[in-house]
Each structure stands twice: as C-alpha cells, then as structure tokens.
Amino acid sequence: MNLQQIERVKKISKDDFVNQYVKKQIPVVIEQLTEDWPAYNKWKLSYMKEIAGDAIVPLYDNRPVNHKDGFNEAHTKMKMSDYIDLLEQKPTNYRIFLYNLMKEIPTLKDDFLWPDIGLKLVKQLPMLFFGGASSRVFMHYDIDYSNILHFHFHGEKQCMLFAPDQSKYMYKVPHALISREDIDFDNPDYEKWPALKNAKGFITNLKHGEMLYMPEGYWHYMKYLTPGFSMSLRSFPKNIGNLSKAAYNVLIMRHFDILMRKFKGQKWIDYKNEQAIRNTHQGLYKTL
Predict the structure, then answer these.
(1) SS in 3 state form for the chain?
(2) Tens-of-pLDDT digits for all 288 residues of the chain?
(3) Rounded to two decimals, what is the model's pTM?
(4) Is the dihedral of CA 180, 182, 188, 194 positive or negative?
(5) Helix 266-287 vs helix 254-264: angle between axes, to the nearest 10 degrees?
(6) Which of 239, 233, 186 lies closest to 217, judged by CA?
(7) Which residue from 136, 152, 155 is spatially nearest to 61, judged by alpha carbons?
C-alpha cells in the first residue's frame, strides 16, 4: 500500500507538539515520553498477571460482525492470569479491547503520569488493549473522534493509519465505524478492492514505552508483532465538525444500527457490506 513512515521524535515541547502535529492533524511517535514513568520498568505481562491476575477480562477475536452481537460485545471472558498464560504459550486471536482495567485495579494509575502535552485529557478513560503475536485489530476509527495518545508496552506492535479524507477509498461500512472486515490490509487484493490503490496512509512499529499520537477521526489498523499491551489516553475533538459527528455516532448512529440488527438480522449486515463496495466504487469512478 501507499504508506509513509510516521515521523518520530525522541522528546518534544508542549508548544511544538501542538503547533506541528495537533493543529496540523499529523500523527507522530514520541519515543521517550514514558521513560520517567514507573510503568516504563514495571509494565510487562508478568506484572499485569501479578497485579490483575484475578480480574475477569472481556476478550474479542477476529470473527466477522454478526447481527446477534451487541455493540462492542465481547466474544468470551477469562481470568487475566489465564489470558496472559495463553499469550505467552502460543499465538492467539483473542484480544482485550478498549477495557478500563484501571477501574478494577486503581493502583495501576500510580504507574503513569498524565502528560502535560497541550491536550486536555479525559482522566476517566485510560483504556488498555492486549493482544497475542499476529493478532489484529480491524481497520476502524473511533466513535468519539478523540485525539488519542497510544502508548505501547512489552514487545512490538505495527500501526497503520489513514486520515479522514481517505475514507472514500476505505470501503467504509455505512452506519458503522469499520472497513469491510474481509480486506487483508497487510496484503490487499487490488483486483477485488481497487480503491485501496488510491489510499495514502502512514505506518510505524511501536516498541516498549513509545507513544503514537493519532489525530481526530483517523482510521487505524493494529497488528501485534509480539504479545503485548497498550494504553490509550483521550482528548475530545477540538474541531466542531468532528464533535458533531461524535455526538451523532454516540446518540443516533449506534442505536439505529442496533435497532436494524434486531429487526433485519443478518440481512442488515449483508446489506451494509454490499453498500460499502457500491458506495466506494461509485465515488471512485466519478473521480476517474
């Protein structure tokens, strides 16, 4: 795919971060932001097993969306200690996704510092994500259009991003926040998905302690190269248009989709997937 490496800096001042990246809505990796955090030395899978091993955590895998699934409904649950054992034993598709573990284990909040980086972060929403080697998070963008600080720990993770203006090429599923789930973004079939040849994006590999800034409404696809976990801190969108889109997604779109799944069943899911192709190709051929 047409991907460029995301810019990297070791450290950066608040003013430079805001002026060069937030205002311009450009992603960046800050490599040394966490080096003075207790988490930098402590946050490994063994530590999470020790401190949160008895917590029951929600797990997701790569199965396609089904009309019977609730919005962001977990596919199964497991004790954290058993899940970490699984991660360390063999590759698995099971992931922890968008989970507020710190609500159950408040002492985790003592391990990191809220970065003074020019964003007003929502302190009620530090979310954790875990994955095994080769597990993937489907291409999507976040419902609230937040500016996201995404920190990775224990191992390595590949992150692929596309700006909102690339949505016309992404085979976006209507009334949803995802691309077609049958697209292999690691090795796309351009005969089947020709619009992707026009998409321009970004890519980087995050290592332990590094932070990726993802601007408002950016599409992102994540692949764990090794077992590991990440934390996201969020700041509500600064763009008024994006704030309106976030409100629509939360208050209207999500509930409409749930209602249609209830009444139309799998036909609704199939219809949306067909529309993703039709809408993308119609827009593509108009520009050719």
Answers:
(1) CEEEECEEECCCCHHHHHHHHHCCCCCEEECCCCCCCHHHHHCCHHHHHHHHCCCEEEEECCCCCCCCCCCCCCCEEEEHHHHHHHHHHCCCCCEEEEECHHHHCHHHHHHCCCCCCCCCCCCCCCEEEEECCCCEEEEECCCCCCEEEEEEECCEEEEEEECHHHHHHCCECCCCCEECCCCCCCCCCCCCCHHHHHCEEEEEEEECCCEEEECCCCEEEEEECCCEEEEEEEECCCCHHHHHHHHHHHHHHHHHHHHHHHHHCHHHHHHHHHHHHHHHHHHHHHHC
(2) 899 999 999 999 999 999 999 999 999 999 999 999 999 999 999 999 999 999 999 998 877 666 666 556 778 899 999 999 999 998 888 999 878 878 888 899 999 999 999 999 998 778 899 999 989 999 999 999 999 999 999 999 999 999 999 999 999 999 999 999 999 999 999 999 999 999 999 999 999 999 999 999 999 999 999 999 999 999 999 999 999 999 999 999 999 999 999 999 999 999 999 999 999 999 887 765
(3) 0.92
(4) negative
(5) 120
(6) 239
(7) 136
